[in-house]
Design a protein that fits this description.
This protein is an alpha+beta fold. About 15% of the residues lie in helices and about 60% in strands. The protein has an eight-stranded antiparallel β-barrel. The longest helix has 18 residues.
């Protein structure tokens, strides 16, 4: 029973006692017993995710994402594929986690295998006291490769990563987290079979769900 409900029950019991007006009437005793019982009931608070400053945390996620490669005079299409993520770090405070996040994306179509990987230093900010809604941001390196039996197209780029997620507590120190992330890496180059093609940029949008241990 919540604290507000406890107070309401106690107040109702006191009003009932006053209305009867008989100091030792059985009804007064019943009302007092109800009020006393209400005061001893435990209150129910919203579940929060646990986090100890200085504690280590780690997690993983699986999902789906869309990758795109562009250059100064071209813009590729978004291509869908499966994604996976690993992350780990240190809890700095109730509102802040710092860590390293590794993302992978893969797609195979008609003999052409594509993969997209990111390695980013990240900060995770929790604006609420229960550490449920989170906003993340960081910076890192992004790699891309598309190859078949004869040729390979590669790119290495650098840029920011942003995300938003929501944590659901499912156990002691364990949370289930759906997450949406965007990696935009405009500072890079393109190569075809090892020969430079000029500057390029990489983008990765991914939606996944994972588990995190604190």
């Amino acid at each position: 029973m919540s604290k507000i409900r406890q107070q309401a029950v106690s107040l109702s019991a006191l009003c009932l006692i006053s209305a009867v007006g008989v100091p030792n009437a059985p009804l007064n005793g019943i009302a007092r017993a109800v009020a006393q019982e209400a005061s001893t009931l435990p209150s129910v608070e919203p579940a929060s995710t646990s986090a100890t400053p200085g504690g280590f945390w780690y997690g993983f996620a699986l999902g789906w994402g869309w990758s795109r490669v562009g250059c100064d005079v071209c813009r590729g299409d978004l291509v869908g594929g499966a994604t996976g993520m690993l992350k780990g770090g240190i809890t700095q405070s109730r509102a802040l986690d710092l860590g390293l996040e590794i993302n992978g994306w893969r797609q195979n179509d008609e003999g052409v295998e594509r993969w997209h990987g990111t390695f980013s230093l990240m900060a995770y900010f929790y604006p609420g006291p229960l550490r449920q809604l989170s906003f993340s941001g960081g910076f890192g390196m992004t790699l891309f490769r598309a190859s078949d039996a004869e040729d390979a197209f590669t790119s290495t780029s650098f840029g920011p990563q942003f995300g938003v997620g929501y944590q659901f507590s499912v156990g002691s120190g364990l949370t289930l987290t759906p997450q949406l992330d965007l990696v935009a890496a405009p500072l890079g180059d393109l190569q075809f079979n090892g020969e430079g093609l000029g500057s390029g940029n990489l983008q990765l949008i991914k939606l996944g769900i994972g588990l995190t241990w604190h």
